[in-house]
Fold this protein.
Amino acid sequence: MKQDIHPDYHKLKIIMTDGSEYTTYSTYGNDGDVMRLDIDPKTHPAWIGGERKIMERGQQMKFEKRFAGFGAAGGGVAAAPAEKEAAKGKK
């Protein structure tokens, strides 16, 4: 292995959003640095099942209004395949 081409691998202290902390190894920063997280698996909607937080109804309606005629023959938002099948069953 070539010498002096790899980044320094050292200890780093991570502080989560709830205040808990742990030590790991990283190439980030310098030895003994502290990284305070703004978003982590304990608070991010993608990890806590927060579909309600990711896509609030107001944001969804804003998106649907903005892209209402995009790519759909009828001028509305194209229905997903499951919605199409449900509509067939109602006829």
User: Anything to note?
Assistant: The helical segments are 45-48, 51-54, 57-66, 81-90. Residues 57-66 form the longest helix (10 residues). Strands lie at 10-15, 21-26, 34-36. The two ends are 69 Å apart (CA to CA).
